[in-house]
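Hey all, sorry for the wall of text incoming. These are the two entities for the joint prediction.
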Amino acid sequence: MPLDPASARPRPDLGFLAARSARRAAPASAPEPVPEPVPEPAPVEPPAASPVEPLEPPAPVNPLEPPATATPLEPPATAVNPLEPPAPANPLEPPAPPPAPAGPTISLTPPSPPTPPSTGGSLLDLFPDDEPASPPAAAAPAPTPPAPAAAGGASSTRAAARWQRPRLDLEGRITLGGAVPALTLSRVASGIGAITIDLAVGQTQGPVGLAGVYELWGDASAPDSPDPAARPSSSVVTRDAREAPTRSRRPVLLAGRDRFDRVAIDLRQVRRLRRLLLVVRRPIGVPMTMPWAGALVVTTHAGARVDVPLEPIGAAPAAAALAVYQVDGELVLRAEARPAGSLREAAQAFGFEAITWLDDHTPLQ
Amino acid sequence: MPAPLPRGANAALTREIPGLKRVTLGVQWDAGNDDVLHGSLVMTTLLCDADSRALSPEHLVFFNQLSSPEESVVQAEQALGGDQEQVIVDLAAVPEEVDRVLVAFYVNDSPGQHRTLGRLRSLRVRAVDADSDSELVRSEDLAAALDREDALTLGELYRHAGGWKFKVLGLGYTGGITALARDHGLTL
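and here's what came out:
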């Protein structure tokens, strides 16, 4: 039966569809900038099911193209090469001390009224535009509280359809949680340099650790590559298993430790990231009565900062603190604060079913 | 094939080809066997005013933002003709306030890896008539003078006397795309 979008039943519950369609419209004369899906090589591990899957981008470059015919090197006609001093922005610098209340420097587009929190699980709801994460009661204060939702059925429906996540551009600082449980980084902020995520905690918290549970798409620029690192994959990065894909020479994710445990995302390869779940965890055998304190600190290349307080977690051996989704080149951050008994339990609660585990704390790499 | 243009030289594109409507700006490079460098290289295009300041972050076109807001500059999904990356400029659609379309090139500052453009074996920018696929301008090899730079302005299309000219630049930066963008009014 032929499908006609014009006569299709409206889906106000899927507001992101309208937003994406509107943004991607292009004139017939111009090349379509939307990446088209390309066939994936056979995945090593099947990714978890998801109702809406981001498009796999085509190769933006052709690395196998031979270079231009070599010509003799000539000295420049004009000596134009002034060296600039190193840029101050360094994504590998240690972050500022943990979370301060969101200041007045927030650079957000005004958020529209959020829809009521859904009671559904998150396993099949990876990219909701209109469902804020269920925030804990003690979440940090929101810097820009949204306007109250419009009353009335029709108005509420229209408001829900128009609702969009707050956006963070190149500068600013925000605390994620409470009335602002999720935000979208701009395309520039999602595509230049690297993003670092630090587990910023005080010494009283003890030797806590940060793990990044991930799913990667295959490398669209090398679809026929025999390199296992070019295939889709799902596993965990920690300070002891640093690269994703495992043993990659050019990792999409790199874990390590500077002042705090850190996971960094190489934004040149942002289109390979499908999703990343940041899990905080205490060492095995440590009493679990101590409540979590501190924050995950997300820092962009330009210095914009997103703080995700850990206090809403309460006391737990582990917890999913932050989820990062790549949607059509834009990174969506969502505060989670979901306690779990172990790293494995936290990962499986978010549908990371393709990971093989040695025990509750150790994935098989 | 036209003779390579050295840094600082320009060509009057629309004076030579009065019917020129769309220009493809392409970059060709050879990173040798350094696949980390190869995978970290990015071509970007900034739509700038007469003071060489980008109009906004949305006027920076690169792999993760494939067109300017009005779509006068669009990054090609698949580069052709020997280029690794290309943008297509629709000259008539370029907004009046845009005086220069700057083509730049940088090494993404990836975690745990640092490369510079000095490792490149060759680097050229060229301008092509997008409708006839005929090459209009090709720069000299810009890699020969590179050392510690990790960002570089390659060339610019700019308005001149009611038409468009193309100039080879080759201005290097050691502060990456951040420093280059700052020089053009953007904080990245």
